[in-house]
Amino acid sequence: xxxxxxxxxxxxxxxxxxxxxxxxxxxxxxxxxxxxxxxxxxxxxxxxxxxxxxxxxxxxxxxxxxxxxxxxxxxxxxxxxxxxxxxxxxxxxxxxxxxxxxxxxxxxxxxxxxxxxxxxxxxxxxxxxxxxxxxxxxxxxxxxxxxxxxxxxxxxxxxxxxxxxxxxxxxxxxxxxxxx
Length: 180
Prior knowledge:
The protein is built from seven helices and three strands; from the N terminus they run αααααβααββ.
């Protein structure tokens, strides 16, 4: 997709017979180019922030898609789902323990160690209240998750469920506000 800077530059070049380099510093055309450049930078920054917010959801879906693939894309029962959720929560334990052991006695925890501790605690709390995952407990929903190619738009079409640590399963909405 062409950026607004490229479009503006092309328009100005067409108007000036291909000469964009010879612009006065405060001319209308140079101000248009500057404005288009600033807009492109702002849009890139917003896209990066959105991608960062969406990444935990994509990682979660990938994890449960791989769990399905391990079981030959057959629907999972509640015990298997709960063990997969526990594995997902505990995936950061090795890194956390390594950082904890590497720290000298009496030193404060590193930022990464604090972040991992908060992430693990948030995941455990979410599991107590209801862990949001794509529905992997029915055959048709498992097949639709198998078809997922990695796009964000397809995730909204998947059915989602909340699984609590007590074993309760209820339907949920797509976590558009992000997870964690």
